[in-house]
Amino acid sequence: MSSLFEPIRVGAMSLSNRIVMAPLTRNRAGIGRVPTELAVTYYAQRASAGLVITEASQISPQGQGYLDTPGIYSPEQVVAWKKVTDAVHAEGGKIVIQLWHVGRISHVSLQPDGMAPVSSTARAAKSKTFTRDGFVDVSEPRALRTDELPGIVEDYRRAARNAVSAGFDGVEVHGANGYLLDQFLRDSINDRSDAYGGSIQNRARLLLEVMEAVVGDIGAERVGVRLSPVTPSNDAAQDSHPEALFDHVIDQLAALRIAFLHVVEGHTGGPRDCAIFDFEAMRERFKAAHPQGAWMVNNGYNRQMALDVVASGRADLVAFGRPFISNPDLVRRLEVDAPLNALQSATLYGGGAEGYIDYPAMA
Question: Is residue 3 part of a domain?
Fold first, then answer.
């Protein structure tokens, strides 16, 4: 039986334990969408995680959907992220960046020249986003033209290359939670009639083209992807045949020999039983085709659940989200079964050091 606290090899990365810091949007980027010195401290404090996955970071100005989120498309951003990766590595940690395009979950005030957000569809989401005016309704998107999609793929590829230049150990492509790639996957959102709409193969095409481009540029051993087959986040209604859709996606991802697959079980940040879906069958399908690929689980795991899922072999890695915000030494606390600090909800999004780098570690 494997232990949550044992080392593991994941692609090119040797991790000191199986505990992962999940990506967590904190809305504290500086001018030019660059991570600040506060971010350097924040991530270094949490470097005892076997793997740190950064907050979602947009691959282009068009990919932004929330106020003050960082990017990975400009030279200034690469330089700023290098300070973060150096700090995490100095503490003995491993860190990957989550590559993000929000698609229709955005607002014109956050888009270049006030343009409409883009998506697989021209239908607006019934969702909110965070702007200088607080939480507001997202804007109506326009559907991407077919001839624009190679440019989206190129943005992901360039962002992955920038991540390596910034010292990251790898990248996680964000294919979950109702953002752009998920907007193409689900037939509840994707209403296209071109080569990227209609059949499962067509709707999965953009995600798989992105993954092929990123793998081709920086190597499969540095690449993971996050999926959320049934989450309703950001007005992502259920696909009509989610099992068939993700069977196809899993088969293609396994063939790429990626380092890890990060799966949100249930409603992201909400109920784990929001829809009927056989996650164990999904894992078995992936591992049968790609035994070396790590299976990462996420959503509402506590200490005992995490210990059990790793010991049983039903997961290789367990990602924790909000507990890492208020507990920079979460790994140690889980190891000795210590109490956790309470989370300050008021300081989750935006602000400065308070509720960001001032949570105490154990004495």
Answer: no
Among all residues, which ones are annotated catalytic? 179
Residue 361 lies in a domain: no
Round to whole Å and give the CA distance between 64 and 56.
10
Among 80, 45, 73, which residue's Cα sits nearest to residue 59? 73
Report the alpha-carbon distance of residue 239 to residue 261 in Å, rounded: 20
CATH assignment at residue 275: 3.20.20.70
- Please compute Rg for the chain using Cα positions: 19
The residue segments making up the domain with residue 111 are 8-347
State residue 106's pLDDT score. Answer: 98
- Per the structure, the count of domains in the chain is 1
* pLDDT above 90 (res 80): yes
Q: Is residue 358 part of a domain?
A: no
**85 close to 171: Cβ distance less than 8 angstroms:** no
- For 114-138, how does the pLDDT look when each residue is reduced to its tens digit (9 = 90+)? 999 999 999 999 999 999 999 999 9
CB of 249 closer than 8 Å to CB of 199: no
| DSSP H stretches of helix in the chain | 37-45, 75-90, 149-165, 180-185, 200-203, 205-218, 242-256, 279-289, 303-311, 322-326, 330-336
